[in-house]
């Protein structure tokens, strides 16, 4: 059975792992991990598809679990749920259990656990790539989920979104929003199963707050996730930490060095005012700081994530990549050139100074985008991959330009080749009209043609009676028109009687039978040709309106 997901159905086969199976299975035969696997893994958590939920529920019922719900669940389409994007299988489950006054949470949590059991064989590497433990896995899901939603066009029901915050080691809060009923309970079961299967830890997931649906139809939940194992691990790490001074005087890096090493960074206080700026930002905003103040909103627009520009909102989304765009400050020359330039980076909370550190890299489209913003290659630090991206991008553009020219040249060569082929076909056709096929082929290949003697051949010679008198009173065009009309008729007769036209000289029309193809009836064919030519002349007139007469004689060579 396929393991389908709402918007990431790969058609891959599900590998069901027994409850006590080991998780460190070798992956030598597994497919390479890619973005599609991450997309499927996050999809199973935020918006499990109808077929996958149906398969998980049916699997539980086949194992004779959920006995208290079995009678109610008989009303569900267990065989195959409707293939409709607007239909939600989970909604039906919740509605049925609500009608019978049954709590759906235990059932849906078991469904969530079974979803992970069924799909872990295919998606284990994707889940493991997110973090070494559940805390890191959950905090990284936020940023990865935003990237996947931005890169893909989704259809059907809207996927859930979530933001994970670390309250203390082993204590997390998950803000989850979804338009579908029951997804939050399925998510709780899935996270609990993930913790056990991947990391051998117990995770306690509880819903501590629920808001009603808003105007967009989304319901908002706040979940508490407790991982006791991380408490003890953190205590062990703290006890093993070497004693390190926290005094600023013992940290051998001055602000100037920091600003030089990270030119595109700034530090904000609780009021979102700059307390430190990297050298790149200083070159852009140094002259405006005294006049327009130090508030970050004066110089930057928050593009992503879509949250208020406040300290608490930013702190809550610190696990998400931030995208800022530079604003022009009252027509300043430096900031005007850089207006609209986007910088993508990370917001880091610094508890020792109660401030936010933003470390970023500029989004630039090649060298032209760099110089057009009033920047230089030296403004990009050596450790920043943006420098390589710009230079490699320029090299790729040059290669693309060369490739386009080569493609254009190839296209012109192909067109010329087709034209040559067309002319060749014309020449071949012309040779076939003049010579027998075997002679035409040898002439085309440039071979010498040796004279041959043919036995059993009959020649036919014909001319027009009074042709000289006709030409004396007719114009050249009238003569040509008369001959063309008559000889076209003779050519058709040659094809019908399978004789070979040797040549035409003036009014003389010469035909051979048995020359191009051996024939035992060559004499008869020639006679039929002569009679047919005489008969055909009755329908052709001279320019004076008189019927054309033709003389024909045969010469058999036996």
UniProtKB/TrEMBL annotation:
The protein's UniProt keywords, in alphabetical order, are: cGMP biosynthesis, Coiled coil, Cytoplasm, GTP-binding, Lyase, Nucleotide-binding
SUPFAM superfamilies tied to this protein: Ligand-binding domain in the NO signalling and Golgi transport (SSF111126), Nucleotide cyclase (SSF55073)
Q: Where in the cell is it found?
A: Cytoplasm
| Coiled-coil intervals | 399-426
Where the record annotates domain Guanylate cyclase, the positions are 458-558
Q: What is its EC number?
A: 4.6.1.2
Q: Where does the chain cross the membrane? A: none
* Organism encoding this protein: Cloeon dipterum
**Pfam families noted in UniProt:** Guanylate_cyc, HNOB, HNOBA
Q: Which InterPro entries does the record cross-reference, listed alphabetically? A: A/G_cyclase, H-NOX_domain_sf, Heme_NO-bd, HNOB_dom_associated, HNOB_dom_associated_sf, NO_sig/Golgi_transp_ligand-bd, Nucleotide_cyclase
Keyword check for Lyase, yes or no.
yes
Q: Which Gene3D superfamilies match?
A: 6.10.250.780, H-NOX domain, Haem NO binding associated domain, Nucleotide cyclase
One GO CC term, this protein: guanylate cyclase complex, soluble
Task: Name the SMART domains on file.
Answer: CYCc
GO BP terms: namely: cGMP-mediated signaling; response to oxygen levels
Note the PANTHER family from the entry: GUANYLATE CYCLASE SOLUBLE SUBUNIT BETA-2, HEAD-SPECIFIC GUANYLATE CYCLASE
- Report the GO molecular function annotations: GTP binding; guanylate cyclase activity; heme binding
The UniProt entry lists the main location of this chain as cytoplasm
According to UniProt, the name of this protein is guanylate cyclase
UniProt key word Nucleotide-binding: yes
